[in-house]
Amino acid sequence: MFFASTHPASLRRSAHVPAMRSLDRLLDLALAAPAATTGACRADVRTDGTGWTLSLDVPGVNREQLTIGIEGPVVRIETLADAPRAYKQAFELPQDVDATVSTAKLENGVLTLTLAKKQPVSNVTQITVN
């Protein structure tokens, strides 16, 4: 006596289905290769009621060799071409960042970004009734 599957093999789902969510991508990048070869840097993200604090390890570069760009909820950190080490990292936060209030500090190879949440602006206009 033997048993056979009643479903064709093509209809069965594989045990490992890759998900493209941001956490899975972050874990894949962090575990795939050391930070020096991927250009990624070790990062720590903390949140509070007013914003986020990002701490990134960027040893070997000074503040003139770093560029930080903020576009809505996306923060991009990378080194210039003439830097002795290359780092390139992007973070997508759950809410827009207020670039006018945010600050960056580089101390002992650790870049600390203090990013403020952008307060939503109401676009409601009042109309008088005639």
Q: Would you tell me which CATH topology of the domain at 41-119 applies?
A: Immunoglobulin-like
Q: How is the largest sheet built, in terms of strand order?
A: 1-2-7-6
Compute the separation of the termini in Å: 88 Å
The global form is: elongated
CATH architecture annotation name of the domain at 41-119 = Sandwich
The biggest sheet amounts to: 4 strands, antiparallel
Task: Give the low-pLDDT segments.
Answer: 10-15, 33-38
If you average the pLDDT, what whole number results? 80
Helical run tally: 2
> What structural category arises from helix and sheet content?
mainly beta
Number of distinct beta strands: 7
* Beta-strand content estimate: 35-45%
Order of helices and strands: HHEEEEEEE
CATH class of the domain at 41-119: Mainly Beta
Helix content, binned percent? 10-25%
The Cα radius of gyration reads: 22 Å
Topology (elements, then pairings):
Blueprint: H1 22-32, H2 35-38, E1 43-47, E2 51-57, E3 66-71, E4 74-79, E5 88-92, E6 97-107, E7 110-117
Antiparallel strand pairs: 1-2, 2-7, 3-4, 4-5, 6-7
Write up what this structure looks like.
It is a single chain. Strand 6 and strand 7 (110-117) form a beta hairpin. Mean pLDDT is 80; it is low at 10-15 and 33-38. The chain has 130 residues and is mostly beta strands. The longest helix is centred in the first third of the chain and has 11 residues, at 22-32. The chain has a domain at 41-119: Immunoglobulin-like. A four-stranded antiparallel sheet has the order 1-2-7-6, with no helix packed on it. A three-stranded antiparallel sheet has the order 3-4-5, with no helix packed on it. It has helices spanning 22-32, 35-38; strands spanning 43-47, 51-57, 66-71, 74-79, 88-92, 97-107, 110-117.
